[in-house]
């Protein structure tokens, strides 16, 4: 989690520009020298994924599995009811 924040901060610092009125007398590279494109971006930043960890994510995964099982049961019940209705209609 900390690595993600650090990478985002570094990316922000690489892409941010400094207004001319706030520059100091010391020698700094101009913003035109620091162009950030997909080609110049670190490949690790491009491949970075947000990792969700902890009990909330684990519980969310459990709830998702439970919902999938309930959906399957409802679909089965609906199919059975439809078949039953067809038998009664004939």
Short description:
The chain has helices spanning 2-15, 43-47, 55-89.
Structure description:
It is a single chain. The chain is mainly alpha-helical. The chain folds into 2 domains: 51 residues, no CATH class; 39 residues. It is 60% helix and 0% strand. It is built from 3 helices and no strands. The longest helix has 35 residues. The termini are far apart. The mean pLDDT is 75.
DSSP, total strands: 0
Contiguous low-pLDDT stretches (5 residues minimum) are none
Please provide the ordered H/E string of secondary-structure elements: HHH
What's the alpha carbon Rg, rounded to whole Å? 28 Å
How many separate structural domains?
2
Helix content: 55-70%
Which structural class matches the secondary elements? mainly alpha
Mean pLDDT: 75
Number of continuous helical runs: 3
State the shape: elongated
Biggest sheet record: none
Strand content: under 5%
Terminal CA distance reads 62 Å
SSE blueprint:
Layout (H helix, E strand, L loop, with lengths): L1 H14 L27 H5 L7 H35 L1
Attribute tags:
elongated; 90 residues; 0% strand; 2 domains; single chain
